[in-house]
């Protein structure tokens, strides 16, 4: 099946080149291939099936909705109104009244496009600040904010006026400083751009940042960073867009990852997990005072698919019913502690980090020099896959094991995955 698809699609297939399986079915945190092999899914569609594959409770909302109404363009429906109310109800209480919700289309990239449009219309400016290691999608403007040149360099032109600045990546501080006394040089770098007319960069419309960098290697920025960034941006009348497409929808142990911090953004993009069971949907959550759309300023055939919205409603109810945030925090701690124990016995695990169940393990040739070791990550991923565990690889140097399992994983599954990783690591190190 895999060979057949590759023959038909040619070079278009991407993930099966590194995880060569053809999938038949999936349930909870387990994926089964066409040959009946089962894998623990610590990939979860890069943070899509947060509530587990084919989650029956959520699926029941979708099935009931599908019998009633699937497509309604962007007409109001009770289903949609309820999804909007649930999104707002899960924001911090004191902020709920200040935001509104608009559905952006089926994919994360759609939401990014919408957010950029809104920020540019609102400010009348068109410069955007983005971050090294950032990933925001593959449509033209979203790709313009995605830093990896491997994705960009075959296109002769992208959306202009995007400038990349360093992310708060303390394990590999771009300024070679120590987190304890760096005084947030990364924020000062940005300050210089905003304050110095000789920076050559016009005043931006917005700063677009992932509150936890996902494809960039599950990097949690240092404490105080997001707060300082927002404060700086607002002092210069620049909007802040938090891209929560991967870090959001409860992955970090809060609805949105920024809710662990004191930073308050102007626009938030969400997608991936929000369709509940993997149905496509994205949304913008934005401050009412940023509103700048006129009628029909942002339209689209698939804005707010009713089946996906039913998935959203089911997902929020599921999260609340089972107090999933607490579970995610505990499960994340267990996984991180297990990984840190592996780190002690390995010469190659340079860094273990994360928040909730968004965890990155950085493999290096030498813990002191921190030289990235992408070849070892490849071997490790393969050894894990042979033993029934799949995950995605990412990072600024393709040397980070990215663990983003469904949030419903049990202790037994975590321990099982850790046991697989321990053996696979020994095998790939030898
Ligand atoms: N932003 C972030 C942070 C993402 O992780 C992704 C997807 N990996 C996107 C945007 C793009 O979403 P999509 O693939 O649905 O267009």
Short description:
Belongs to the class-III pyridoxal-phosphate-dependent aminotransferase family. This protein is α/β, with parallel strands linked by helices and 430 residues long. It has helices at residues 2-9, 15-18, 44-47, 56-68, 78-89, 108-123, 140-144, 149-152, 185-195, 225-235, 306-321, 324-344, 374-386, 411-429; strands at residues 23-27, 30-33, 38-41, 99-105, 127-131, 162-165, 204-209, 239-243, 267-270, 282-287, 349-355, 358-363, 389-390, 392-394, 400-403.
How would you sum up this structure, described in words?
Belongs to the class-III pyridoxal-phosphate-dependent aminotransferase family. Its cofactor is pyridoxal 5'-phosphate. This protein is of the alpha/beta class and about 425 residues long. The protein folds into two domains: about 55-320, Type I PLP-dependent aspartate aminotransferase-like (Major domain) (Aspartate Aminotransferase, domain 2), CATH 3.40.640.10; about 325-400 and about 410-430, Aspartate Aminotransferase, domain 1. The protein contains 14 helices and 15 strands. The longest helix is centred in the last third of the chain and has 21 residues, at about 325-345. The model has no long low-confidence stretch (mean pLDDT about 95). The structure holds 4'-deoxy-4'-aminopyridoxal-5'-phosphate (PMP). 4'-deoxy-4'-aminopyridoxal-5'-phosphate binds near residues 112, 135 and 214. 4'-deoxy-4'-aminopyridoxal-5'-phosphate binds near residues 112, 135, 136, 245 and 271.
């Amino acid at each position: 099946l895999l060979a057949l698809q590759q023959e038909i699609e040619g070079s278009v297939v991407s993930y099966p080149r590194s995880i060569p399986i053809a999938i038949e079915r999936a349930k909870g945190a387990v994926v089964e291939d066409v040959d009946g092999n089962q894998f623990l899914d610590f990939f979860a569609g890069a943070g899509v099936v947060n509530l587990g594959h084919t989650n029956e409770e959520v699926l029941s909302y979708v099935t009931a909705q599908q019998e009633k109404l699937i497509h309604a363009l962007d007409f109001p429906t009770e289903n949609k109104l309820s999804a909007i109310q649930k999104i707002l109800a899960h924001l911090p209480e004191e902020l709920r009244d200040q935001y509104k919700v608009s559905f952006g289309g089926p994919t994360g990239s759609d939401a990014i496009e919408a957010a950029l449009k809104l920020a540019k219309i609102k400010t009348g400016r068109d410069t955007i600040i983005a971050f090294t290691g950032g990933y925001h999608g593959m449509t033209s403007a979203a790709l313009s904010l995605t830093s990896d040149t491997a994705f960009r360099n075959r296109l002769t032109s992208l959306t202009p006026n995007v400038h990349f600045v360093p992310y708060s990546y303390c394990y590999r501080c771009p300024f070679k400083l120590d987190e304890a006394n760096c005084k947030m040089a990364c924020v000062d770098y940005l300050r210089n751009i905003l304050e110095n007319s000789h920076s050559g960069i016009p005043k931006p419309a917005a700063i677009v940042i992932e509150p936890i960098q996902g494809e960039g290697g599950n990097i949690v920025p240092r404490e105080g960073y997001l707060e300082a960034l927002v404060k700086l941006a607002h002092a210069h009348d620049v909007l802040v867009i938090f891209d929560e497409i991967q870090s959001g929808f409860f992955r970090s142990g809060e609805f949105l990852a920024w809710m662990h911090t004191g930073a308050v953004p102007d626009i938030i993009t969400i997608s991936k997990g929000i369709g509940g069971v993997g149905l496509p949907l994205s949304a913008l959550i934005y401050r009412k005072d940023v509103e700048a759309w006129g009628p029909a300023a942002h339209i689209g055939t698939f804005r707010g698919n009713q089946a996906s919205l039913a998935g959203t409603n089911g997902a929020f109810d599921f999260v609340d019913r089972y107090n999933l945030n607490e579970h995610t925090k505990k499960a994340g701690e267990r996984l991180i502690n297990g990984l840190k124990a592996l780190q002690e016995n390995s010469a190659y695990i340079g860094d273990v980090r994360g928040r909730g169940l968004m965890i990155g393990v950085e493999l290096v040739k030498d813990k002191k020099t921190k030289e990235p070791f992408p070849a070892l990550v490849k071997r490790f991923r393969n050894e894990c896959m042979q033993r029934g565990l799949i995950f995605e690889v990412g990072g600024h140097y393709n040397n980070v094991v990215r663990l983003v399992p469904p949030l419903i994983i049990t202790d037994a599954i975590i321990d099982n995955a850790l046991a697989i990783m321990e053996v696979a690591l020994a095998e790939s190190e030898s």
